[in-house]
Specification:
- The protein has about 350 residues and is an alpha+beta fold.
- The chain folds into 2 domains: about 5-50; about 80-350, Beta Barrel (Porin).
- It has 3 helices and 16 strands.
- The chain has helices spanning about 25-75, 80-90, 95, and strands at about 5-10, 10-20, 105-115, 120-130, 140-145, 165-170, 175-185, 190-200, 205-220, 225-235, 240-250, 260-270, 275-285, 290-305, 310-320, 330-340.
- The protein has a 14-stranded antiparallel β-barrel. A two-stranded antiparallel ribbon has the order 1-2.
Length: about 350
C-alpha cells in the first residue's frame, strides 16, 4: 500500500506518492548530515563558552572592586572623614595604620638633636604582611615601633621594643574596628596578647570624633592600657584641626609605672606638590612620683613626598620645656627620611589611591 501526500492547485488535484523504499535513504542522509555538523557546532561553541567564562570572571572582579569602593565611600562620606583619612595616611599615624590588614613595609632613619641631649640617631622599621586566602583577616606584624609608642614624636621613648606577631581583624563596620594582637617581645623576652577597639562617629559634615582603646598583657606580668580620644574638624581651605587626649597606664612590673597623659592640639595645612605642615602644641602629664607636668613641646612638622611615590622626608624644628631640666628652653630639630612600600592592588581602592593626588580635596 502506498502512503501519499496530496497537493491541490487551483482546484486541480495531483497525487504525489512516495513509496516506503525511498524513506530509508532519506533517513541515512539525515544522520550523515547530523554527524558532520555536530563536531563543527561544538568547535564553534567552544570559543563562545570561553568568552562567556572570561566575561563572568570580569564581572565578578568588577563586583569585588565595586564592593570595596562602596565600603570606602561609606567610610569617607563626610568632609571630616576625608580630611582625617588624608592626614593620618600622609603623616603616618600608627593609630590609623593599626586598623588596616594591608601588606606594607616602612623604614624611618632619623637624627634628633636637642640642646640638652645632643644628637641621637635611630632607625625605626615596621612590617605588615597580609596572609593570603583568609579574607584580609590576619596579618603578620614585626618591627621596633608599634602600639607601645602611640605617644609618637611628642615623647622621646627610648624603650621601644622589637616585636613579631599576628594581628587578627574582626568584621569591619562603618564605625567600629576591632582586632587582637599576639606575639613575642624580644627586648625583655615575653609573650604578649591584647585587643584593640576603635569607634568613629561623624558629628556633622565637618566634625567627627574617634575613641580607641588598647589593652596588652605580657607573660612577665607587665600590662598596660592605652586610651585615646580624637576630636576632628575640617576647614574648607585645606586646614584640618585635631584635639587629641590619650593616656597610658602601666602596671607594677613596668619601668615607668603610673598614668601618663598627652594633650595635643594639632593644626594640619595641606600644601601643593604632595607636601604638608603640622603645627603641634603638646603637653605631657605624669602621676609618678607625683602628679606633674613632664613636658611642654611646640613643634612645626614639614613632610614632603619626593619624586618617588615611596620616598618621604621630614624637617621638624621644635622647642620643649621639661621637668627633667627645670623647664629650661630646650630647642632641637628632627631630620627624618622614610621609605614606604604598600598599597597593593586591593588596597588602592580604599587607602592609597587618593593619598597624594591633587584630585583629593576636603
Amino acid at each position: 500500500m502506498d502512503v501519499g501526500i496530496r497537493f491541490t492547485d487551483k482546484g486541480t488535484e495531483r497525487d504525489r506518492v512516495c513509496s516506503r523504499g525511498c524513506a530509508i535513504p532519506v533517513t541515512i542522509l539525515q544522520l550523515l548530515l547530523l554527524l558532520t555538523i555536530s563536531p563543527t557546532l561544538s568547535i564553534a561553541d567552544q570559543p563562545a563558552a570561553e568568552a562567556a567564562q572570561e566575561h563572568a570572571e570580569e564581572q565578578s572582579e568588577l563586583a569585588k572592586k565595586e564592593k570595596l569602593l562602596d565600603r570606602h565611600k561609606s567610610r569617607v562620606d563626610s568632609q571630616a572623614q576625608r580630611a582625617a583619612q588624608w592626614v593620618d595616611s600622609f603623616f603616618y599615624d600608627p593609630n590609623y595604620e593599626a586598623e588596616v590588614a594591608t601588606s606594607q613595609f616602612r623604614v624611618r632613619p632619623e637624627l634628633h638633636y636637642r640642646q640638652e641631649q645632643d644628637v641621637k640617631a635611630r632607625l625605626k622599621f615596621s612590617l605588615k604582611v597580609r596572609l593570603p586566602g583568609i579574607e584580609r583577616k590576619v596579618s603578620i606584624v614585626a618591627g621596633n615601633s608599634g602600639e607601645d609608642s602611640t605617644f609618637g614624636d611628642a615623647v622621646d621613648d627610648t624603650t621601644e621594643n622589637s616585636v613579631v606577631g599576628l594581628q587578627f581583624f574582626g568584621k569591619s563596620r562603618k564605625s567600629w574596628h576591632t582586632s587582637l594582637s599576639a606575639g613575642i617581645k624580644f627586648n625583655d623576652f615575653a609573650f604578649f596578647i591584647g585587643p584593640r577597639v576603635s569607634y568613629f562617629k561623624s558629628l556633622d559634615d565637618k566634625s567627627s570624633y574617634q575613641f580607641t582603646q588598647i589593652l596588652r598583657w605580657q607573660t612577665n606580668n607587665f600590662w598596660q592600657s592605652i586610651s585615646r580620644v580624637d576630636f576632628n574638624h575640617a576647614f574648607n581651605d585645606g586646614y584640618f584641626f585635631r584635639q587629641t587626649v590619650d593616656g597610658r597606664w602601666r602596671g607594677e612590673k613596668s619601668d615607668e609605672e603610673g598614668y601618663r597623659t598627652r594633650i595635643s592640639s594639632i593644626l594640619t595645612q595641606r600644601l601643593k606638590n604632595s607636601a604638608g605642615l603640622q603645627y603641634d602644641f603638646t603637653t605631657i602629664f605624669h602621676t609618678r612620683p607625683d602628679t606633674h607636668v613632664a613636658r611642654y613641646t611646640l613643634s612645626l612638622r614639614y613632610r614632603k613626598r619626593t619624586w618617588r611615590e615611596w620616598f618621604y622626608y621630614e624637617i621638624v624644628p621644635e622647642i620643649s620645656f621639661e621637668d627633667e631640666f627645670d623647664y629650661k628652653a630646650n630647642p632641637g630639630i628632627r631630620l627624618r627620611v622614610e621609605v614606604f612600600f604598600g598599597a597593593d592592588k586591593d588596597t588602592q581602592f580604599w587607602r592609597r589611591e587618593h593619598e597624594d593626588t591633587n584630585d583629593f580635596r576636603w
